[in-house]
Amino acid sequence: MISAHNLTKRFGDITALDSVNFTIAPGEFVFLTGASGSGKTTLLRLILRELKPDSGTLQVEGTDLVQLSLSKLPQYRQGLGPVFQDFKLLPDKNVWENVALPLQVRSIKPTDIASAVKLALDLVDLQNRTQLFPGQLSGGELQRVAIARSVVGKPKVILADEPTGNLDPKTARTIVKLLKDIHSELKTTILMATHNADIVNHYSLRVLALENGRLIKDDPKGKYD
Amino acid sequence: MTNHLATAISRIRRSPYKTAAAVSIMTMTLFLASVFIILAAGSQVLLKYFETRPQINAFFASDYVPPAQEIDKITTRLQATNLVDQVKYISKEDALAIYKDLNQSDPLLLEAVTAGMLPASLEVSAKDPSHLRSLADQLSREEHIDDVRFAEDIVNSLTTWTRSIRIVGGSLVGVHVLITFTVILLIIGIKVSERRDEISLLQLIGASPGFVAAPFVWEGLLYGIFGAGCAWLVTVIILLYSMPFLVTFLAGVPLLPPPWWFFPGLLGTEILLGIILGGLGGLLAVRRFLKS
CB contact, 8 Å: A76 with chain B? Predict the structure, then answer.
């Protein structure tokens, strides 16, 4: 569960998030919408605990992110599966190694890593690309690798920041369908920031809409305004 | 650990120029440290050698054979000063035996000398080199002693040299250690900076600071180990090459060849120093980034 109460974040004079309140139940798929600069990425960075709120509370799966100490931060982040607009794949590691990374940081046995990576790559249908490097893949394939990396550790929450932002409309729909399938199969909570109206309108899922840092809409079967 | 080591090796192979710079500076410093260790240890052995030799030779007149009572009296007077470690009487026959031993390869010199031509003498060792002058003065006042020679200058020079080697060598090595540490810090710092995005990603997916730092620390350790190996090889080659000359130059001094443990010990010391320098450099470089 993700729960924010009066969550506020400022960067100097700019208020990126202004007293935001919401609760996301375990296993929900939620679109986070809003124009550029509305505060979507700031909210995701707060949940990833890249940033600390200036006021209010933020709890993720029982962890109070305001009180979370630096020593507990790695363990907390191991429970999350981040997906980024620019993929953030390591160029000198191949597909298999990129996907294995979240398990390697947890010092999991190599045999267990091998089977988990195989499952994740099967899930995103990239089992034939394991030895290729990011430079040899298309945009859609890169994002599928990033999604495989985000799910390989069986996270409780997947945070996707504009995962379709760099993709053509057709590939974008494939990626969102993939995330939806993963959600159905693994029952993972997914919070996906997007300003792709077609996708949001197509799925009719819960929508949290931000505008100038304020939560202006929380609609269980929302549309993109 | 294997993973981190493999990552470090792969990063080293991908930046050959930085690796060459790091290993070169490490080799230079560790070579300098080896030279310092050898010089400091060698001069210490030399000093000990000269300190334990008879430091004063008091020669009786060459036509005089001192009676046993006179030798005893002189010995008693010397020991009464409490400055003497040992007194040994060398008779004319003993002197001839020593002479023969020293010149056994030259029959002409052996034939020309008889026991009667050589003076009897007393060999005196002082407890401390600083007492040599007063003991020599006392001996020269003895009635039948004709000539007194002592090695004050050698021991004093050696003491000064040993002290100078320690101060100058130690300072030089210290400065080089600092320079090397800074260079390693810079090289690994550049690599950390180049991998800023990778480090950020690792942190976002839950890598601990130790996991992020490990390959960089390994990299520093490997620079240290490679540098130590190269420095050791250069030292051994130079030492073995100059061994024949040194053995002749230091004839009689039990310094060369070095004991069996010397070369492995030197390698161990260099590796240890390299590991400390490289490992610490790597750790500090990445820590600075993780903190910022």
Answer: yes
